């Protein structure tokens, strides 16, 4: 994880080969990086990936295990709190596999530029789980039935994500870095006072509402999924590359 600050733009680069899978350690380092960005000299935070195949394939399956679950959910919740409460504008540049926790990071940002090859998805239900941040965010973005389609595992290409309002812009893959840098530069040229006032005015109430929904979702997750036989079977089946056998409850 690297953070480079230049001319008001803090570039946070995800770089865990091959797919930027977010284990507890990487989530912690991402959260530390975001805390570094909350300073007066930063007007824009740009999140991007150095890995060619993915922005992020999501949270590490192994960290959904019962003995790691609380630490993982705590890190995810803190990531949401930080992204929703940072004073700078947040911008994600995404490409390739943008799944689960990786897609949730994009949902939490103010603006998202995506390459045409971006595929969004929330595959957690196939592992007997669900994405708590997406469960908190997606219903506010449109019809309930559309949110449920996505939460139940339907993948979303860049065009459909743009039409649904999830993306600010879709560009050819070859222009992603250039486009994101140009947009970040434009935003960083605005008055810092105005930008911070705008993020406070728009995010404050949204942050409270989303975090309340997220806390409710995490409570449900811990109470019903966290230590269930199905959740453990989903993890085992994924790691063993076989079809899961669910309980009959």
Question: Helices, strands, pairings?
Answer:
Layout: E1 2-6, E2 9-14, H1 24-37, E3 44-49, E4 54-56, H2 66-85, E5 89-94, E6 97-99, H3 101-108, E7 111-115, E8 119-121, H4 132-137, H5 144-151, E9 156-157, H6 158-163, E10 169-171, H7 176-188, H8 192-225, H9 229-240
Helix pairs in contact: 1-2, 2-8
Quickly list its features.
49% helix; 2-enoyl-CoA Hydratase, Chain A, domain 1; globular; four-stranded mixed beta sheet; 249 residues; alpha/beta
Question: If you had to describe this structure to a student in words, what would you say it looks like?
Answer:
The chain is of the alpha/beta class and 249 residues long. It has one domain: 2-enoyl-CoA Hydratase, Chain A, domain 1 (Alpha-Beta Complex). It contains 9 helices and 10 strands. The protein has helices at residues 24-37, 66-85, 101-108, 132-137, 144-151, 158-163, 176-188, 192-225, 229-240, and strands at 2-6, 9-14, 44-49, 54-56, 89-94, 97-99, 111-115, 119-121, 156-157, 169-171. Strands 1-2-3-5-7-10 form a 6-stranded mixed β-sheet, sandwiched between helices. A 4-stranded mixed β-sheet has the order 4-6-8-9. A hairpin with a 2-residue loop joins strand 1 and strand 2. The longest helix is centred in the last third of the chain and has 34 residues, at 192-225. The mean pLDDT is 95.
């Amino acid at each position: 994880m690297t953070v480079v600050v230049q001319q008001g733009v803090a570039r946070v680069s995800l770089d865990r080969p091959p797919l930027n899978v977010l284990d507890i350690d990487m989530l912690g380092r991402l959260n530390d990086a975001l805390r570094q960005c909350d300073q007066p000299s930063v007007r824009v935070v740009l999140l991007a990936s150095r890995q060619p195949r993915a922005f992020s394939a999501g949270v590490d399956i192994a960290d959904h295990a019962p003995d790691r679950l609380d630490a993982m959910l705590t890190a995810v919740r803190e990531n949401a709190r930080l992204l929703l409460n940072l004073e700078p504008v947040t911008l994600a540049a995404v490409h390739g596999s943008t799944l689960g926790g990786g897609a949730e990071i994009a949902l939490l940002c103010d603006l998202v530029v995506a390459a045409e090859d971006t595929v969004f998805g929330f595959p957690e239900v196939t592992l007997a789980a669900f994405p708590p941040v997406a469960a908190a965010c997606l219903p506010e973005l449109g019809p309930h039935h559309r949110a449920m389609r996505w939460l139940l595992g339907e993948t979303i290409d860049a065009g459909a994500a743009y039409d649904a309002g999830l993306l600010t812009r879709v560009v050819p893959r070859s222009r992603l870095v250039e486009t994101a840098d140009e947009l970040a530069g434009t935003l960083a040229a605005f008055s810092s006072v105005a930008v911070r006032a705008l993020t406070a005015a728009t995010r404050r109430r949204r942050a409270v509402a989303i975090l309340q929904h997220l806390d409710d979702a995490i409570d449900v997750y811990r109470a019903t999924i966290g230590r269930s036989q199905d959740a453990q079977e989903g993890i085992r089946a994924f790691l063993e590359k076989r079809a899961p056998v669910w309980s009959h409850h």
